[in-house]
Amino acid sequence: MAEISIRESVRSFVKWKAEVLSDDSPYSKAMMAKLRQGVGKQMESRPDVWDIVLDGLDERLLSLDGRISAPEKAIYTALTLYAVHQQGKSESMNRGNDSFGAAIKKLRDPDGGNAQSIKRRFDAIVTANGYTELSFYARGMVQLLKSKDIPLDYGLFAADLYGLGFPDTKSRVLLRWGEDYYRKGTVEKSKKEESANEQ
What we know:
Elements (H helix, E strand, L loop, with lengths): L2 H20 L3 H12 L12 H5 L15 H17 L13 H6 L9 H12 L4 H17 L6 H10 L3 H16 L4 H12 L1
Helix pairs in contact: 1-4, 1-8, 2-4, 4-7, 4-8, 6-7
């Protein structure tokens, strides 16, 4: 399976699972609680979430050697962080087309009062030594996004997390996050312009 195909499969799977989790059913509530308990833990040690993380997953994305595959790891991380982000929210925090960098940019105060604090946190993510450290810092950032009701495209986030597992795509993912974080103007403005052009 080509890498681009894997990225798209990861993205669409997480988008679908986030929709499943966003309904108000007892199953979704229970699964979201279990996912939150799994943040920072290895998926292999959390069989209670395999139902939501693995059921319906394209067989080509599953592990072949009994160790978690890169797609499974990205999906699990994204869904656990989505569960943290969504807790206590009535509106879905999985929406838009913002990359992680673009969402983080929205945390900055208009007057720039918190710019250095946000930049330090962003820098810690993009310079993290390995996936585990990056996931730790990403959790803190997701909690900040939650506090400000800033949504994130979790399908795209999962695809990016998958891309971080490979040296040739890691630098591209991190650079895109950086470009989106430092881009002038606002993402909302460009979205409004796009929707006006579609009409």
